[in-house]
Structures are given as structure tokens and as C-alpha cells.
């Protein structure tokens, strides 16, 4: 009887071991660091995915990310990806799901998928908060009443750490520490402008300190302070409301979402290429509606949007 019990115990343990061998799990150094089930890359770096156990055979798959569930995009076997590890990178594999199929004896099983995430590192963009009645827009520039102020903000301030703010266009990217355009001491994700200038910033991410981005020239904003004819005495400032704007996915291949719920609607949204050419425009855009950018040539674009209460957003995105 004792021998029989020992045999059954060993058989039970063998079955447990077989079951463990049939439950592959993906792991990597950055997996889950910022978001569960996601790997977030630093610029041009690679990441090695691996299974937590060894199996007889492997086949890795990838699937392009989609904004809704279920994802209609097919899982595609990666040619030559038949070892325990798979190296992916932030240039080619951003916004793709990955999984692995393994075999061990008579067992064949698939892992849960993981995402090479791009939304967390959406490119920085400039938001400008004006006080109603204290400004007017003229040919892309903003005349602001003397005594008023404009709060400028990095729309992805939570992602980016150290900032360098400018009052004119710097002469190089990255900027020289002695560039005369640098505003001394302005290193946060917001800056309040009270004098005329061309404003923008250079910022580095907290997760990858060496990953830094400069706003493109057309993303800088020109402010002219003075006593204009439209100005009145009501230039007292009020504390701006919390102001965040989402632009995702970034990069994108087809659909782009932009906006924040409190704005509800944007009277005008313009998409501009890096040469300054207007390539797409939408009026009365609702924040919950996608913008189809599938027809755009792959590259970097600027989105300029204006809310009904006078806020101006300048956002950069990548069309893959």
C-alpha cells in the first residue's frame, strides 16, 4: 500500500511538472516596469524577450496593435524566431504584440501576449493657456495684452523630467548650455511667459534620461506683448484649470485620437507636415472621434488644435 501511494505521488508530481512545462510565460528586464504586460523602450535600444522555462521548440509571433478589442490584425510568425529568446527594438517593433508558442513532448501551448508600448513615450508637445479677452491670433502669432501672462506647458510633462525653456529659437539641437535663447532656471514642465518672444523647450524623459526631444521650429509659439486696441482692463489672471490633452497612438498607422473630455469639441484641427504645408484639416472635431491619417506619407507631422475657450495645442506625431 505504501509503495502504491509513493507511485501515485510521483505520478501526480510528474503531471504537475508536465502542466508547468505547458504554461510558457514571457519575461524581460523592462516588462511591466511602467505598465503591466508592456515593454517601454528607450530610443534605438533593444530588449530581449525570453520564456521563464526551457522547452523543446519555440515559434515567436507578432501582431500589429489595434485601438479596439478584439484585435482584427493577424498574428504573423516571425521568420527565424525559433529560439528561447527574441530581440526586439523600439524602432521596428513599437506598437506590436508578441507571443511565443512552445512544444515539450506531447504538449503544445502559447504564452500570454505582451505589448511593445509606444503611447508612454508620445512625443512632447506644447500647450498654451490664454486668459480670455487678453489675446488675439494674427497669422499664427499671438498678440497678448501687457500685464497678462500665458502659461506654457509640456503636454506630456509626466513622462518628461528635466526641461530647457527658450525665449527664441536655439541655434542647435541639442542646445548648447550657453545658448542665449535659454531661459535661466526654467527647468520644469511649465513656464509662464510675460514678455515677447518665441517660446519652446527641449526635454529629456525620466525613464530614459538620455532620450531627449526638441520641439520642431513650427511647434514654437510667438507671443507679442503690448497695449493692443482690443485690450481692456480685465487682465487679471486666474489660476488655470488642470490641462491635459491625449494624442494616441503615437506612432500611428491609421487612426489618431486627440483631445480631452472637458474640451468636448475643437472648432479646428490642422495637420501640418514638417515643411509647413497644411495636409489635412478638420472642423468641429469631437475629442472621442478618431482622425484617419492612413493616407498620409510616413513621417513626422504637427497637429495644431484650438479649443472653444481659446486654448491652443501644438502636438507632434509620427505616421508609420
What does this entry look like structurally?
The protein is mostly beta strands. The chain folds into three domains: 20-118, Sandwich (Immunoglobulin-like), CATH 2.60.40; 126-226, Immunoglobulin-like, CATH 2.60.40; 247-319, Sandwich (Immunoglobulin-like), CATH 2.60.40. The chain has one helix and 25 strands. The chain has one helix spanning 2-21, and strands spanning 26-27, 38-40, 46-51, 57-64, 76-77, 85-89, 96-104, 107-110, 114-117, 126-129, 135-138, 141-145, 150-154, 160-166, 190-193, 197-205, 212-214, 221-226, 246-248, 255-259, 265-273, 278-286, 291-292, 299-306, 312-319. The N and C termini lie far apart (68 Å). Residues 2-20 and 233-244 have low confidence and may be disordered.
Kindly summarize this structure in a few lines.
The chain has one helix and 25 strands.
Number of strands: 25
Helix fraction, binned, reads under 10%
CATH class of the largest domain: Mainly Beta
Poorly predicted regions are 2-20, 233-244
Q: What would the keywords be for this entry?
A:
Immunoglobulin-like; 25 strands; 320 residues; mainly beta; six-stranded mixed β-sheet; 6% helix; 3 domains; seven-stranded antiparallel β-sheet
Amino acid at each position: 500500500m505504501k509503495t502504491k501511494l509513493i507511485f501515485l505521488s510521483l505520478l501526480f508530481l510528474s503531471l504537475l511538472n508536465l502542466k508547468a512545462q505547458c504554461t510558457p510565460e514571457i519575461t524581460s528586464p523592462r516588462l511591466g516596469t511602467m505598465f503591466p504586460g508592456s515593454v517601454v523602450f528607450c530610443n534605438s535600444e533593444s530588449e530581449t524577450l525570453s520564456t521563464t522555462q526551457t522547452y523543446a521548440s519555440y515559434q515567436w509571433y507578432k501582431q500589429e496593435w489595434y485601438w479596439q478589442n478584439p484585435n482584427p490584425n493577424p498574428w504573423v510568425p516571425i521568420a527565424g524566431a525559433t529560439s528561447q529568446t527574441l530581440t526586439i527594438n523600439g524602432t521596428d517593433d513599437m506598437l506590436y504584440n508578441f507571443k511565443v508558442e512552445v512544444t515539450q513532448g506531447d504538449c503544445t501551448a502559447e504564452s500570454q501576449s505582451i505589448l511593445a508600448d509606444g503611447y508612454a513615450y508620445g512625443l512632447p508637445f506644447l500647450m498654451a493657456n490664454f486668459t480670455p479677452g487678453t489675446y488675439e491670433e494674427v497669422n499664427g502669432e499671438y498678440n497678448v495684452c501687457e500685464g497678462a501672462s500665458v502659461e506654457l506647458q509640456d503636454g506630456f510633462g509626466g513622462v518628461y523630467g528635466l526641461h530647457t525653456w527658450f525665449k527664441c529659437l536655439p541655434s542647435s539641437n541639442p542646445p548648447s548650455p550657453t545658448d542665449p535663447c535659454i531661459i535661466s532656471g526654467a527647468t520644469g514642465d511649465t513656464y509662464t511667459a510675460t514678455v515677447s518672444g518665441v517660446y519652446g523647450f527641449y526635454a529629456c524623459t525620466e525613464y530614459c534620461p538620455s532620450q531627449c526631444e526638441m520641439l520642431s521650429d513650427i511647434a514654437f509659439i510667438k507671443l507679442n506683448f503690448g497695449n493692443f486696441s482690443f485690450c481692456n482692463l480685465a487682465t487679471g489672471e486666474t489660476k488655470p484649470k488642470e490641462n491635459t490633452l491625449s494624442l494616441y497612438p503615437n506612432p500611428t498607422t491609421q487612426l489618431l485620437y486627440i483631445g480631452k473630455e472637458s474640451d468636448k469639441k475643437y472648432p479646428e484641427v490642422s495637420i501640418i507636415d514638417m515643411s509647413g504645408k497644411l495636409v489635412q484639416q478638420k472642423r468641429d472635431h469631437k475629442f472621442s472621434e478618431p482622425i484617419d491619417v492612413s493616407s498620409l506619407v510616413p513621417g513626422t507631422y504637427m497637429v495644431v488644435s484650438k479649443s472653444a475657450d481659446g486654448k491652443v495645442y501644438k502636438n507632434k506625431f509620427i505616421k508609420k
